[in-house]
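Look over this record before class:
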Amino acid sequence: MTEEKRLTVRLPKDLHDKFKAATAGNGKDMTEVVLDFVAGYVSIHALFTVAGDDLPLTHEQYEQALRILQSTLEEEAAEQDYE
C-alpha cells in the first residue's frame, strides 16, 4: 500500500460549494480532482527543473507547460476512448 499524507485546504464556502458542484457534475469527487491537479502541478514543475536546480517559472513557461500538459491529457483521453 502506498503511504499517504493528509492535506487540509481552507477555502471560502462559496468556492468550496462551487468546486463540489463542478466535480460532482463531472462524475468525480473533489479528492480525485485535487490529486489530478497536484500531479499536473508537479509535472509542470519538473519540466522546468534543470540539473537539480529549482528554478521559478516565468508566466510564459507556465503557460507553455499547461499547453503541454493539456495536450498530453487529451491524447491519453483519446487513447482510452479508442480502447
Observations:
- Residues 8 and 66 are 25 Å apart (CA to CA).
